[in-house]
Amino acid sequence: MNLTRIRKKRFDIDFTTDEEVYSPSSEHKSHGSSKKYSIFHPDSSLGVLTKNFVSLIQNAPNKCIEINDATRILQVQKRRIYDITNVLEGIGLIEKKHKNRIRWIGSKSNEDFSQEIMNYEREMRELKEEEDKIDQWTQKLQDSLNQLIKDPEYAALAFITQEDINSLPNLTENPNEILLAIKAPPGSILEVPEPDLCSNELEKYQIVLNSKTEPIMMYMVSNDSSSKI
């Protein structure tokens, strides 16, 4: 199951409440008739609201319901319903049939649903903890690099030589290739033609550099003295 879509937004859903969940009953008539549901008592708890919403959609005709109907029956703001549907869709329990119409495709019982949600909530917490650790170490490394950059002794050594570049294997595998180093001021524009749109072979290898402020410097790094630019 893909958790990418919900990883950045966490919802603390609690399924340990002993409050009653009101099951809806419906009467589905011909076109133009109204649907009747039992009354749900409004509850601000996201856990209870989620249970009520799941029970509502599971007992709706064809397990489909309109967002506006759910908002009216559960007596909550539409954004609260969207908070729930975003999580349920992210873990594959519902699908959107239209913009504001959703259908239940997940577990058949509230118990299965509750367990599945809790499993994913636990996994999301673990992923969040791991992400926080990585962010902390990344920040420490960045702080260390910033300190080195500010140190005059290290700043004087912040350079590489032509020999250093030519010693990199991934840049010197093909002896017929030309390796260039470009020094351009901020705001410079580099244009490379689309190979499939070029009218001849020469155009495929053209590079256009443009600067409106300072000159652009270009250096040949390749060791091959016979190469031409």
TrEMBL record:
Pfam family, one: WHD_E2F_TDP
Coiled coil segments of this chain: 110-147
Keyword Coiled coil: yes
GO cellular component, one term: RNA polymerase II transcription regulator complex
Key word Transcription present: yes
UniProt domain E2F/DP family winged-helix DNA-binding: residue ranges: 41-106
Chief location: nucleus
Annotated compartments: Nucleus
Keywords of this entry: Coiled coil, DNA-binding, Nucleus, Transcription, Transcription regulation
GO terms of molecular function: DNA-binding transcription factor activity, RNA polymerase II-specific; protein dimerization activity; RNA polymerase II cis-regulatory region sequence-specific DNA binding
UniProt record similarity statement: Belongs to the E2F/DP family.
Protein name: E2F/DP family winged-helix DNA-binding domain-containing protein
UniProt organism field: Stentor coeruleus
